[in-house]
Amino acid sequence: MDLDVFVSAHRAEWDRLDELLRRRRRLTGHEADELVTLYQHTSTHLSQVQSSAPDPALAGSLTSLVARARSAVTGPRRASWRDAAHFFAAGFPAAVYRSRHWWVPVALLSVVAAALIGWWIGTEAEVRSAIAAPEELREMTRPGGQYEAYYSSHPATSFAAQVWTNNAQAAAVCLAFGALLGIPVLWVLFQNMLNLGIGIGLMQSAGRLDTFLGLILPHGILELTAVFVAAGTGLRLGWTVIDPGPRSRRVALAAEGRSALGMAIGLAAVLFVSGVIEGFVTPSGLPTWARVTIGVVSELLFLAYVYVVGGRAARAGETGDVSAEDRPTTVPTAA
Q1: What letter would DSSP give residue 121?
Q2: How far apart are CA 295 and CA 110, in angstroms?
Q3: Fewer Cβ atoms within 10 A, N terminus or C terminus of the chain?
């Protein structure tokens, strides 16, 4: 494509569109129709420049013009409580449901890894001695020791807030840095499973594994599920860098990134629930069976939310992305 000829042929349309966008008075009906038509034409011109004759200066100018025109055509839009309700009723569970092929295998492999680490530490005295001195290990695992005292070391409200903040940060790392080929995600998973495995192994060696599980399960099932969802989503984002599919890498990453951002908001709510359980239920005087039952029920409710509500929304076309009017304009790309 001869760029000079192309610019000469369409410059008048671009100038006219710019003129209409600069009008301070209300446009007439005819001018409004003309604005929409010129916006559509200019969007097509931008696609042709980007695909056939990439010129940074011209592409930048047309991108700005198209963005201004799109804003004028669609009008400003403000988020409302209806958007938030739709997000939690359809967008978030659908996004979690769509990413199940990533986070479910991550969950299974991670739990197996934690169990193997725990078995290794619990059966090998040399490994335990490398972790800490025998006196320190006894202090950690004895009745009323560090593992048990941890959950009642601070007032319930501040402890729940601290736990929620720490877990939300771990989930945010998985979602925000997943595009780095998933490497930070694997590190977060490793740290979490290592800590869990050490706790399992040390308490098993002390003959108090049932006590440890009674402290971990009430909040840990839901908490770890949220971390696994974040990790699976981050790994999917990293894979998008490698294989964007039929979309361009830029478009694919933008769509998956917006979905991951929404996932971060939804998972923060899930982790808030697990933090409340950890702060108020885990250290409570309830019997172990009652505390574990609360954890199991919260997990089953979340899975029902994802697979029933989210599955229905996903089959209806919901992806977890922002609504169409809030997405950047995408134009066809010539082959």
Answers
A1: H
A2: 19
A3: C
Q: Per-residue confidence of the chain (335 residues) as pLDDT tens digits? A: 677 888 888 889 989 888 888 876 778 878 888 888 998 899 888 888 877 766 778 888 888 888 888 877 776 555 567 778 888 999 899 999 999 999 999 999 999 999 999 999 999 999 998 988 888 998 888 888 888 877 776 666 766 676 677 777 778 778 777 777 778 889 889 988 999 999 999 999 999 999 999 989 999 999 999 999 999 988 888 888 888 877 777 777 777 777 777 888 899 899 999 989 988 998 888 999 999 999 999 999 999 999 999 999 999 988 876 554 444 544 444 44
Tokens representing 255 are 């769509």
Q: State how far the Cα of 209 lies from the Cα of 118, in Å rounded to an integer.
A: 10
Largest CA distance in the chain: 86
Token output for 259 = 């979905």
Which residues in 196-229 are b (16+ Cβ under 10 Å) and which e? bbbbbbbbbbbebbebbbbbbbbbbbbbbbbbbb
Round to whole Å and give the CA distance between 260 and 174: 10
Structure tokens at 93: 């569970």
Cα–chain center distance at 80: 21
- Residue 2's SS3 state is coil
Task: Give the residue from 311, 308, 306 showing the smallest Cα distance to 270.
Answer: 306
Instruction: Find the DSSP H helices in 243-310.
Output: 249-276, 288-304
Structure tokens at 36: 């929409």
**Residue 29 CB neighbour total at 10 angstroms:** 7
Tokens standing for 170?
């771990």
Contact between residue 138 and residue 197 where contact means Cβ atoms under 8 Å apart? no
Q: Is residue 306 helix, strand or coil?
A: helix
User: Three-state DSSP class for 187?
Assistant: helix
Is this model's pTM higher than 0.90 or not? Answer: no
